[in-house]
Specification:
By secondary structure, the protein is an alpha/beta fold. A 7-stranded mixed sheet has the order 1-3-2-4-5-6-7, sandwiched between helices. Helix 1 packs across helix 2, helix 3 packs across helix 4 and helix 3 runs antiparallel to helix 6.
Length: 264
């Protein structure tokens, strides 16, 4: 509980767990959570190395793949004796949630995948959005000029330039974290290939696809939806890669509409 800075809110019995994306923390869900507290048991946490987690528990070997973060989710669920979880995962946490559902097939009721991508690198017959050499260059910039890297990446991720405070918040979140841990998490995030895992998921899923998302394009969303059994894709008007921050009302409405359809 302390390791992952776990917080449990809400008055309902149905568990909804919010899992943050790369370079973020649980506070990024603050515009979304109040709309679910009345009807759900809301679980928030920070991955080790992020937010207010206990950085002393960081282990480079454990977190050298997405499975270290999967283990965080499974151990939190075990500690709280959670069952029948609705997991809302942003960006890389979409893949973490998927992998957790494969590892424990009975733990999750449904997955809400916010801007998911199973592979960010272009491969033969697959458009992920990035060439491998470009990501390697970005990693080099990260090592040599961490602040410059953050100031470059934040506006690309966030978009919505008419609300610069959102970009500033994301940039500050990047900069507040340990450089080495964030670098390791970045490599795990952007160089993983989970395309083959899509076919192993047996949990009903909603894909929230943003417009004009440079990190997870509409081609990627279509790829995920075509290969994910029992999945629904919802195309949002929201632009950028963080709709829960930039367009919370639309995000809440989409999640609620899906849950009302699937669970009622």
């Amino acid at each position: 509980m302390k390791r992952n800075n776990v917080n449990v809110l809400g008055k309902g019995n149905q568990v909804i767990m919010f899992a943050h994306g790369f370079g973020c923390d649980q506070d990024m869900w603050r515009y979304i959570v109040p709309s679910f507290e009345k009807d759900y048991k809301v679980v928030l946490f920070d991955y080790v190395g992020c937010g207010k987690s206990d950085i002393g528990h960081y282990n480079e070997e454990r977190y050298g793949s997405l499975y270290g973060y999967v283990q965080d989710v499974l151990e939190i669920s075990q500690a709280l004796d959670l069952k029948n979880i609705i997991l809302v995962g942003h960006s890389v946490s979409s893949m973490v949630g998927m992998l957790a559902s494969i590892k424990d097939k009975d733990l999750f009721r449904s997955l809400i995948l916010v801007c998911p991508s199973p592979c960010y690198i272009n491969k033969p017959g697959y458009y992920g959005g990035f060439e491998e050499k470009d990501l390697e260059e970005l990693m080099t910039v990260m090592q040599n000029n961490y602040v410059g890297w953050a100031s470059f990446l934040a506006p690309v991720v966030m978009k919505n330039s008419e609300r610069p405070e959102l970009t500033v918040e994301l940039e500050e979140s990047f900069c507040s974290m340990d450089k080495e841990i964030t670098g390791n998490f970045a490599r795990v995030t952007f160089f993983s290939d989970n395309r083959e895992d899509l076919a192993k998921v047996r949990v009903p899923s909603l894909i929230l696809q943003c417009a004009d998302d440079d990190i997870a394009s509409e081609e990627v969303g279509a790829y995920v939806q075509a290969r994910l059994e029992d999945s629904t894709i919802h195309h949002m008007k929201a632009i950028g890669h963080c709709p829960h921050m930039s367009h919370p009302d639309e995000t809440i409405k989409a999640i609620r509409a899906y849950l009302d359809t699937v669970h009622n």
